[in-house]
Structure formats: structure tokens, C-alpha cells
Amino acid sequence: MRQYLRSVKLWRAKASFTVEAAFIVPLVIAVLALAMTTGLSMYTEVRDQSEQDNIANLWLVDDFYTGQKIEDLVGVFTNDQS
């Protein structure tokens, strides 16, 4: 009888680990999936911001060269009139 009770307790202990794992493993997988999704959305946001910064920098370069052209033209006209 004593042997039987030990085997039942041991079986229940093993079964409780299975039940706990049935709840914990999906929870861990869900947390990992959430972390990955958050990381990917942050990566996309940073990539888009970097692209927008590059486009803004291109506009600044164009404005600089436009300003240089205007200064050159103004310099040509002021030198011709002197």
C-alpha cells in the first residue's frame, strides 16, 4: 500500500509539471513574440526616420548650391556695374 501511495504522489507531481508547463510555455512564447514585434516596429520607425533625415539633408545641400549660384550671379552683376 505504501508503495502504491508513493507512486500516486510521484505521478501527480509529474502531472502537475505538465499542467504548469501547459500554461507557462505559451505565455513565454507570447512574451517573446511581443518583444520581437516591438523590436521590429522600433526598427522600422528608426529606418523611416533615417530615410526622412537623409531626404532633408539632400534638400539642405540643394539649398546650399542654389544659394551659391545666387551669390555668384549677384557677384557677376555687381562686378559688371562697378
Task: Describe the protein.
This protein has one helix at 2-81. The chain is built from 1 helix and no strands. The mean pLDDT is 78. With 82 residues, the protein is mainly alpha-helical. It is rod-shaped and about 115 Å long. 98% of the residues lie in helices and 0% in strands.
* Main beta sheet strand tally, sense and closure: none
Q: List the total number of helices.
A: 1
Mean pLDDT: 78
N-C termini distance: 120 Å
Query: What share of the residues does DSSP label as strand, in percent?
Result: under 5%
Shape: rod-shaped
Unreliable residue stretches: none
Helix content, binned percent: over 70%
Secondary structural class: mainly alpha
Query: Secondary-structure element sequence?
Result: H
- The count of β-strands is 0
**Over the alpha carbons, how many angstroms does the gyration radius reach?**
35 Å
Can you summarize this structure?
By secondary structure, this protein is mainly α. Helix content is 98%, strand content 0%.
Task: List strands and helices in order, with pairings.
Layout: H1 2-81
Features:
single chain; 82 residues; mainly alpha; 1 helix; rod-shaped
